[in-house]
Write a structure and sequence with these properties.
The protein is α+β, with helices and mostly antiparallel strands. The chain folds into 2 domains: 156 residues, no CATH class; 165 residues, Serine Threonine Protein Phosphatase 5, Tetratricopeptide repeat, CATH 1.25.40.10. A 6-stranded antiparallel sheet has the order 1-2-5-8-9-10, with no helix packed on it. It is elongated. The termini are far apart.
Length: 362
Amino acid sequence: MPTQFAKKPVVIALMAFLSITAFSQGVTTPRTPSPAALVSQTIGISTVIVNYSRPSVKGREVWGSLVPYGWNVQGFGAGNQAPWRAGANENTVIKFSHDAMVEGHKIPAGEYGLFFVINKDNTGEVVVSKDFRSWGSFWYDPKQDELRATIQLRSIPQTELLTYDFVNITKTSADLVLNWEKKQFPVKIEFAVDDIVMENAMEELKGPIGFTWMGYSTAANYAVQNKINYEKALVWIDQAIAQNRSFTTLNTKSTILDQTGKSGEAEKIRKEALDMATENELNNYGYQLLNGKQTDKAIEILILNTERHPKSANVWDSLGEAYATKGDKKNAILNFKKSLSMNPPPNVKANSEKFLAQLGSQ
């Protein structure tokens, strides 16, 4: 009994604390007047994410007034000269899934505070800080800078609500842009995409994917398509072939051998691959060659498909496309008409008729 009575004051105190805490916190409501936002972009297999808040112009003078020019002493917080928070409320936060190049400077993967500076001459700076947890730039510390780089601002049409976006997207890069009022702040972000993909493949192949032939085949194919790391690609495709000796795996190996100057070995393996290829595999390979500008080789493969599958309207239609691509109008028309004479499926019929109309023959 005494023990129970001794616990009561503690319980009462805890309940009182919880009650006070509950009353001191409000329920979640929409943030105004600068709503939170998130924008992301995938570059290769890497991602860039920006979390920020979006103030509006609301008829105010923005540059040189609401956002002062240059570096400015904060009257609250650390009291340092500080850049603009590049949004409203908390830090604008940028996250890189992999090591990146930002304005030509290497930035390790991770989260960072993102800041900007605008000058009267329309130049500016981008600042990437290891401190991403602070509120705005009040506690900005230059010792935390991971990057400072000069940027050239651009003029844009009126943008009422501050907006981040990604433009000029390529295989390996994109420009992150901040648009507000009539100014755009561009920041170039790049990734070593091929290196990242290959390193990621090596890691993934240590897991469940490594127990399937498809894992090794897709990794080898990426290397082939991008003409990188042939030595590793050959190891991978041999592992795929050991699990599944097929047109797909053998054809990939023959391509690797071709691209590394071993044409004799390549031809031998390609013949074996073609001998076991299905109609769809031959057809897809033909289009692959067409897309690679190897038109004559594509025609050769698609002719082989018509010889093996003469009753398929689709193979004649595909051969017609190959001849049309080459500019051989006569043979293109002959093959499209052959396809139409075989009561083709609607999609094949529509394709043949479209090409015949383009070629001036109905």
